[in-house]
Amino acid sequence: MDGSATSPELVRSGDQLAIARLISMVEREDPSRLAILKALHAFGGRAHVVGITGPPGSGKSTLTDKIVGALRAQGRLVAVLAVDPSSPFTGGAILGDRIRMQRHATDPGVFIRSLATRGHLGGLSRAVSEATRVLDAAGYDDIIIETVGVGQSEVDIVRIADTVVLVSVPGLGDDIQAIKAGVMEIGDIFCVNKADKDGAERVVREIRAMLETAVLNGAATRFSGLYVARATLGAHAPISPAADQGAFHHIAAQVSGHPNLEIPPVLTTVAETGQGIDDLVKHIKAHETALTATGYLRMRRESNLAWELGHAAAERVLSALERDERKETVGELSRAVLDKKIDFYDALDALEDALTRSH
Ligand SMILES: Nc1nc2c(ncn2[C@@H]2O[C@H](COP(=O)(O)OP(=O)(O)OP(=O)(O)O)[C@@H](O)[C@H]2O)c(=O)[nH]1
Ligand SMILES: [Mg+2]
Description:
The protein has helices spanning 8-12, 16-27, 33-40, 60-73, 91-100, 123-137, 173-180, 200-216, 222-232, 245-248, 253-256, 277-294, 296-322, 324-338, 344-357, and strands at 48-54, 78-83, 110-115, 142-148, 163-168, 189-192, 266-268. By secondary structure, the protein is α/β, with parallel strands linked by helices. The chain folds into 2 domains: 42-296, Rossmann fold, CATH 3.40.50; 323-357. Strands 3-2-4-1-5-6-7 form a 7-stranded parallel beta sheet, sandwiched between helices. α2 packs antiparallel against α6, α4 crosses α12 and α14 (324-338) runs antiparallel to α15 (344-357). The chain starts with 7 loop residues before the first helix and ends with a helix. 38% of the residues are buried. The structure holds guanosine-5'-triphosphate and magnesium ion. Guanosine-5'-triphosphate is lined by residues 56-62, 93, 96-97, 100, 148, 193-194, 196-197, 270-272.
């Protein structure tokens, strides 16, 4: 496959074949993709990027399928990226994703694509960022990114998505542990799926309790950033439809002395039957509205870009070190350190000099 079957114009016109080809170029890090990505740059920034993340088998694809249906019913154009972090092993999972979203396959308003790379560490994360930009420029209103894994995921969805939905299920004892172990702070919306199974209410209570404790301890979460942004505006506009407020208002407000202090929504769904999906979609959209109204969307995107730029720069430096003449320099410096001719930090300075001179 070559690049000639895709172009910025074709991608912008929404030509799904051209979009798919460009994403394939992104996957294999084809250098000729860059000219197209640069030409598309001016047209991005409109889409709402939603990350759906959680443990394997928690129902992310089934949920995504239902969310796509709800968004399509509103006339929105929707793209789905199903990210496959461990390509040698997950043929089945991706196949499952395809089957679960099959009914949208013939809808021209939906684009579904799985994404994998065999590449280096960080390659998948970069591919997801680039593919998201492609879909954004192609005019999709919503881009849903499904990533497996809680905690140890290779793709840092928080750095890419505007809104992160963290999926849990009853019956996974260690899921709660994983959430406790620091993932909790990335959720904008918490979704306990498989609520038809025993123990869903208990999971909801545990997540709420954890979030309330975090809020009381003043822990910095993505949600608390949005909360502060809203408070700064003096806005008490609900993050969710008024009817849902009671479900997640922070009850411990009196104790903490922070009236109106909130925790993120903790919802229940049965993805298989569609139960709770409308509510979930309402919260996803309400989150986007709140992000936009407070200006927090821009802040979030700016800090995500700063992070991505830093990582891309570090990757460039690392690959520059892989070039033959650099390898020689690194080898010489290492030997000099080993032989006590110079110390480690002088070697580092010398290497930095050599690298800056090359640009
Ligand atoms: N009982 C019940 N089963 C569900 C529900 N939602 C999804 N499932 C089932 O759970 C299984 C896994 O669903 P998927 O949607 O593939 O889950 P996933 O999180 O995308 O899985 P991976 O992508 O492999 O991590 C399937 O058999 C679904 O039919 C639900 O609400 N209740
Ligand atoms: Mg899946």
